[in-house]
Amino acid sequence: MFCIRCFLYCCSPRILSLPAWEARRPKCEPGPAVCHCKLSRDRSGNLLSGITLAYEQYLWCTLQKRTLHTTAIDKLLRLVSTPWNLVLPHLLMGAPGPWIVGLICFSVPLAVVFPPGAMTVEFREGVMPVLLHDVPTVNLSHWGNGELADMHRLAFWVPSKDLGVFPNMALPELLNVAKIVLATGKPANLPNPCNSATCTYSLKIEGPKFRCKKNPLSEEDMRNFEDMVSRGTICDDPIFVVVDEAEEFSTNITKNSLKLSWAPVENGVCFSNAPWGTMVCSTTLASYDVRISTFQNGTQGIETSVISERVFWSEAAPIDMNVLRHYFGRSNDSDFYKLPEHQHELTADFVRLQAYYIRQAALFHLIGGISLAQHYPDTAPIGLNGNGAYGSPYFEMQNTRNFNTGISEETVESYLRDILISTISLNSLQPAPLWTNTAPVSVLESANV
Q: What is the tens place of the pLDDT at every residue in 363-387?
């Protein structure tokens, strides 16, 4: 703008008094004031028209001083409306001043439509595709070299000498992973298999998946709710309760059910007359497509999609806590599990146990209740029996004053999914990875460019 004003200041104050020009010239004093008067009305909308008027004045002043060919004069008169005449070299040589003003008139609309702020520069690191072998993953069907000791090395439960499996004895490392996921609201950091900081690849993994559905209150729950309303204790009792309805101390676990119940709490206020919400979740076995991206600043992005899912646990097909005794506890037939048909069955049973214990690790920090101190509004909710949902982004309970119980099926389902993905991080805790992809993985990693 400063350069344009300087140029307009140089416009000749002499205005031709031709009748045609008098009708078109601006109604203000000649000289620099002509240009300034026009521009000062609306700097943004009238910039082009002001320069056009200045061009006409400057052109007539030029024609008074210089003799040009009639063809050149005709093209100069239409230079503003016909900018492709700017490419004619004889106009630049014969009348450089008007040619420059015409170029400015052509450039102003471009500068308005495409200002410097409209152009953004995005840095993208150069990447190249490579094939990597032995990429860390999680494989629930892999039970080692065929020996019981190697199976226990890969198991998600704490092994016992008598080959029995206890429902609440999930692997401590897995429990720690679940705790991190619950607290952060996202999967744990996964090991980077690439030789560079930037790395993007996809894995296909199989593992447990919650299938959740909000349900209306059952008759029993409705009776309990009415009783609490009559006693005025609906907000004094725990306002968030998680119950694993599977049998805790049984060798055959038949009931595949997790139940969540909560009182209506909004911004830390419990509504004593509103009904509770309930959600029931069953556990299926799903195949996931997981896309993992590690960036130069150390952050990770994970995208997942469900390829398929199937039922692996029901009353007709319970989880057998003593199933390993069937394969390894035969004193008279130590090679029983080595037969191909038995190995196929053992693999299926091992997958079921692995999926069950990932579920148990997820519930370990979730089972119990949360109590809201109604008489002390500045007091944080209290977790009961180890419930760690308060403070977790999955359950919208991060803030004491804005405490909510707006629980959705998607967030509960994503909690178990993120724990499954986070089990890949267990590979970095061992001298050698526990599970690696059998086939080479196509990876995009940063290139030295």
A: 999 988 887 765 555 566 666 666 7
Report the C-alpha gap between 86 and 95 in whole angstroms.
11
Domain regions of the chain by residue span: 2-118, 128-446
Task: Decide: helix, strand or coil at residue 437.
Answer: coil
Residue 368's contacts (CB-CB under 8 Å, 6 or more residues apart) are 241, 242, 383, 384, 385, 386, 387
Token duo for residue 236: 């004094």
Residue 243 forms beta bridges with which residues? 259
Q: For 287-313, give one letter per residue: b (16+ CB within 10 A) or e.
A: ebebebebeeeeeeebebeeeeeeebb
Structure tokens at 198: 């930037």
What's the rounded Cα separation, in Å, for the pair 265 and 252? 38
> Pick from 181, 187, 243: which is nearest to 392 by CA?
181
| Number of neighbouring beta carbons within 10 Å of residue 286 | 24
Residue whose structure tokens are 């709710």: 225
Residues 6 or more apart from 351 whose CB is under 8 A from it?
140, 141, 206, 285, 312
Asked if residue 422 lies in contact with residue 125, where contact means CB atoms within 8 angstroms, the answer is: no
The tens digit of pLDDT for each residue in 274-333 reads 778 899 999 999 999 999 999 888 889 999 999 999 999 999 999 988 888 877 776 555
> How many residues are recorded in the chain?
449
In terms of Cβ atoms closer than 10 Å to its own Cβ (0-12, 13-18, 19+), residue 363 is: buried
Three-state DSSP class for 201? strand
Are the beta carbons of 139 and 204 closer than 8 angstroms? no
DSSP codes joined into one string, 120-181: -------EEEEEESS-B---TT--TTSSHHHHHHH-SB---TTS---TT-B-HHHHHHHHHH
- Find residue 132's DSSP bridge partners: 441
Helices 32-41 + 2-9 axis angle, to 10: 140
Which residue, chain included where needed, has tokens 């049984």?
Answer: 250
H or E segment to which residue 35 belongs: helix 32-41
Which single residue is written with the structure tokens 């119940």? 261
User: Are residues 239 and 390 in contact, defined by beta-carbon separation less than 8 angstroms?
Assistant: no
Tokens 């970095």 found at: 428
Q: What is the pTM of this model?
A: 0.69
| 3-state secondary structure labels for all residues of 238-302 | CCEEEEECCCCCCCEECCCCEEEEECCEECCEECCCCCCEEEEEEEEEEEEEEEEEECCCCCEEE
Contacts of 424 (CB under 8 A, 6+ apart): 136, 137, 138, 190, 191, 203, 205, 435
Answer whether 300's CB lies under 8 Å from 287's CB: no
